[in-house]
Amino acid sequence: MEQKWPQEVASFKPALLNLNRKATSLGIRILQGLALAMGLDRHFFDGLHKGAGTRKSLTSTRCNYYPEVTDETVIVPNQIRIGEHADYVTLTLLFQDDQGGLEVQRKDGSWCPVLPVPGTIGLFVDLLLQRWTADKLKATVHRVIVPEGKCPARQSIAHFIVPDDDVEVKCLDGSDTYEPVNTRSFVTGIFDKTY
């Protein structure tokens, strides 16, 4: 499928492609650190994510825009802007503005706000990494709420690090905690259920 780019902002495409390259590179560096922490070869994940930026991987960058809601009569207590979910790839890098609203779920099921800190990047463990680690690393369940009854416009950019389409993800400890899955089939299967 051909990507669509806004014609009104000529610099958008090169800027976003540059962000995509840099975010993918950072994601691979993070995976190298995780591999070392898990006692694996530093480059274990590199070869499994080499197709990022090509048609051999679903690695992608998504720009999210939440419009401002000024009619306070339509904002209800505990209003959700995006429902609770875990991303279904390896890692997500999140760049968010200063409007707030992002929350992550704690082990006990309660929600913790992720306060925006200028110059930082959020990092989420996703479902494929949870499968690889047989639950040693748990996927980050998160949501976006309307903070304190205000509903300003909010923007974020999520960069999804996805293994190559042909990679089989199976528990690295040899357990059968999860059955092996093909990356593309797993991700597109969730897309199909969601959309």
Automatic annotation (TrEMBL):
GO terms for molecular function: metal ion binding; oxidoreductase activity. Signal peptide: none annotated. PROSITE patterns: FE2OG_OXY. InterPro entries: IPNS-like_FE2OG_OXY, IPNS-like_sf, Oxoglu/Fe-dep_dioxygenase_dom. Keywords: Iron, Metal-binding, Oxidoreductase. It comes from the Eukaryota. Residues 57-163 form the Fe2OG dioxygenase domain. The keyword Magnesium does not apply. Gene3D superfamilies: B-lactam Antibiotic, Isopenicillin N Synthase, Chain (2.60.120.330). The keyword Transferase does not apply. Belongs to the iron/ascorbate-dependent oxidoreductase family. This is UPF0676 protein C1494.01-like.
